[in-house]
Amino acid sequence: MTVSSPERPYAIACDRNREPILAVLRECLPAQGRVLEIGSGTGQHAAYFSAAFPDLEWLPSDLPQNLAGISLWRQDAGKNCLAPVGLDLLADQLQLPQAEAVVCINTLHIVAWQGTRQLFAAAGKMLSPGQGVYLYGPYRYADRPLEPSNEQFDQWLKARDPASGIRNFEDLSRIAQEQGFALEADVAMPANNRSLIFRRAA
Questions:
Q1: Is pLDDT of 153 > 90?
Q2: Domain 12-200 sits in which CATH superfamily?
Q3: Three-state DSSP class for residue 4
């Protein structure tokens, strides 16, 4: 069992959502290869998921100032958890490290919308046909109202940073399609979150 220490960053949401996310990842990740996790945050997910997928290399990434905290969680990770690398979705001419899959959890509503555009543009260049991008988080859908809890969350995000906020599913899907990705699955998750799986087209 993962035990937090005062030196390590900790988010209780990571403990709450890791098992539902793991169930979906088991259906969409490749059997072998490298998974690039974008926006690894505290590092808790990298530790947990790398241990759950011993046949995959797990590469955490985040802004440089977060890498030290992520590294502290590697003591609980599988041996296949690589040292975290610095990655900023808003960087000019973004290039992603080579991988066979991309996982991005609770990140796109934090970073400015340009980060979503650049994520799919860079993933489209890096991934091969058949390889995928997994996204987790809350999304706004045109055909139904946003859940009250997510409406409050969206207001909180925008008050903290006007460039952040819950993204429109239709806009995100359009950006993905423009970069050669097709939506493979949209899975309802606990607490009004979704798992979105986009697969690189041939």
A1: yes
A2: Vaccinia Virus protein VP39 (3.40.50.150)
A3: coil
* Inter-residue contact 164 to 157 (CB < 8 Å): yes
Angle between helix 44-52 and 12-28 (nearest 10): 40
CB 60 within 8 A of CB 81: yes
Residues 102, 29: contact at Cβ < 8 Å?
no
Please give the Cα distance from 157 to 118 (Å, whole number). 21
What is the C-alpha to C-alpha distance for residues 103 and 118, in angstroms, rounded to an integer? 15
Residue 5, pLDDT above cutoff 70: no
Instruction: Let me know: does 186 contact 194? Beta carbons within 8 Å.
Output: yes
Cα separation, 35 vs 96, in Å, equals 11
For residue 172, the Cα-to-chain-centroid distance in whole angstroms is 14
What's the Cα-to-Cα distance from 139 to each of 23, 36, 43, rounded to whole Å?
A: 20, 22, 23
Tens of pLDDT, residues 115-150: 999 999 999 999 999 999 999 999 999 999 999 999
Indicate if the pLDDT at residue 6 is higher than 80: no
Percent of the chain with pLDDT over 70: 97
| H-state helical runs in the chain | 12-28, 44-52, 67-72, 113-126, 148-160, 169-178
Domain ranges of the chain: 12-200
